[in-house]
């Protein structure tokens, strides 16, 4: 529906946006992200024809943008930006009705039935009908934002572009606004492009994300490919940790402050040897896999069965051995957890045979494809096993993989070794038994 093809443009002959391409198809939501001054708003201005292109082409519904007359273009393309206060004297209904002007033959002609219906529907969709006779000035920022979107919806465009629509909105208003927009888009099959500063909202709501840096396209694709720790570090200069959203199959980024107090960092791992099991309290949370189900729960505890003792997980109920786990009867130390690194799910196990010879088994449930990470995990598993049982003689190392896993599909892809995992390994090494 909207396609930018290698577009370049800016102000006074200075190209601020350079050679940027993307497309937003029917029913899609594209998130446009990038640090301050990276050219997001300029890109939007180029896409709506408010700034001239120096190079490249913008296509709207199959035609070059500049071939449309203004009114024609306004029927197809709506823009939601922070509105000027000049509009504040309008009532809500009057303001939403402005969305119908591109459809009217003459400026002062009365609204026909189709106009009335579009206005009423847009106000209902954005739930702003209750303010219909209030002036915009009397609304809160969040309420006003919904009215701006209602005006765009009343326009019944094919494409809506929004410039930071959730700025200044509290968390409820943000969710409310984006839920309503997504519902509308799912139902109507339009194309939506949104500039976001909140990367987690972009990840949650958008099908794809475009990352700008210094006016150039730095990354473009599904959110998990774009919103990685590495990209955010490189282009925003910010340290974040990527984690899986607990409910949605989406990645989220947690802020990792540069300065950490001991309290914040959690200190060293602590080991408590209890009657039945050893409990390792970790400084960083792990996601724990219990039986066949990935619990999605943040855990900071790993429970390890001591030789000859009955296993008791303390945290996540009885440990059930995964069906792909070639478990050895009589094993003494059992360790099993999943670390979710950039959405990677990894299962580790350490099995100690009755003869004190241990097999370290690392099972790959899905997507583990980084040799360095693999080596690290195996090393970590070994360290834990040795730490818990100093006399342990380590036997063969076996690597298995989930037969249904996606290892082959993703092999060779780039992946970052979790800094936290490295740190953890280091800390485990330095803990005296
Ligand atoms: N009207 C203008 N005239 C000249 N330069 C401009 C104009 N508007 C923006 N710029 C410059 O273009 C560059 C990109 O600005 P733009 O507003 O597109 O970035 P942005 O990514 O939207 O930033 P932010 O996240 O801070 O809103 C900046 O260097 C800015 O100073």
Automatic annotation (TrEMBL):
InterPro entries: AAA+_ATPase (IPR003593), ABC_transporter-like_ATP-bd (IPR003439), P-loop_NTPase (IPR027417). The keyword Membrane does not apply. Residues 2-239 form the ABC transporter domain. PROSITE patterns: ABC_TRANSPORTER_2. Gene3D superfamilies: P-loop containing nucleotide triphosphate hydrolases. GO terms for molecular function: ATP binding; ATP hydrolysis activity. The keyword Nucleotide-binding applies. It holds the Pfam family ABC_tran. It comes from the Bacteria. Keywords: ATP-binding, Nucleotide-binding, Translocase, Transport. This is ABC transporter ATP-binding protein.
